[in-house]
Amino acid sequence: MSEHTSTPVAVSSSTDEADPLEAQHRLAEFKTWIIEHPEFADAGYMEQINWADESRVTALWDADLWDGSEAARRRLTQEAASRSIRLDFQQRAHGLNDLQQISGQILDQTEPLALIGFELEAVSTLRVDDGPIELIGTFVEPAPTAQRGDLASIAGARGAQSPEDVERIVRESVGVDVEVVEGEALPARSRAADTTPFFAGGR
């Protein structure tokens, strides 16, 4: 994945130190307003990270659509300022359509992964820290060698015994970098087995 750094945009310095719950509500209303204006998604808006304790939003933007989206980003900045919200932008290397396709390709490997020793619970394609795609799951006993399916040749005789094994196997079979997180997916992090953690502050 190519590296794209956060790109600050001039915003109003007007923020308030309101109750975090009130700020959280205000940030959620801002997102609702964005969703009601699909031209922002067309321009590259993907999702947002809400920092309620700072009355701040980081809008995640498709890097491929960054050029030419200045007017849309300026309008978002103005709307945020009118709601006493600080706004900045962060470019992401993969757009939502790409992420949906990648997620589908990984989820298609759920059964083959289980046969070699990793039970996939969920896929997290959008992260606060812009790290690799996360695979959440647990290690299980691999199937007998003769029954390990399509990934057996990539996994080798040991199967999948460590996060590094799974990361290598998925990288070779799907072609994307991933990071394995052991444990069951939390309900708050799950969205149809494709997770998105986006209330980062003011809990």
The major pleated sheet works out as: 5 strands, mixed
Tell me the structural class: alpha/beta
What distance separates the N and C termini? 31 Å
Q: Give the overall silhouette.
A: elongated
Number of strands: 9
| Strand fraction | 15-25%
- The stretches of 5 or more residues where confidence is low (pLDDT under 50) are 1-16, 186-197
Quote the average pLDDT. 85
User: What is the spatial order of strands in the main beta sheet?
Assistant: 1-4-3-2-9
Oligomer: single chain
CA radius of gyration: 20 Å
Helical percentage: 25-40%
Tally of helical runs: 7
Order of helices and strands: EHHEEHEHHEEHHEEE
Features:
203 residues; alpha/beta; five-stranded mixed sheet; four-stranded mixed sheet; 9 strands; 34% helix
What does this structure look like?
The protein is built from 7 helices and 9 strands. With 203 residues, it is of the alpha/beta class. The strands form 2 sheets. Strands 1-4-3-2-9 form a 5-stranded mixed β-sheet. A 4-stranded mixed β-sheet has the order 7-6-5-8.
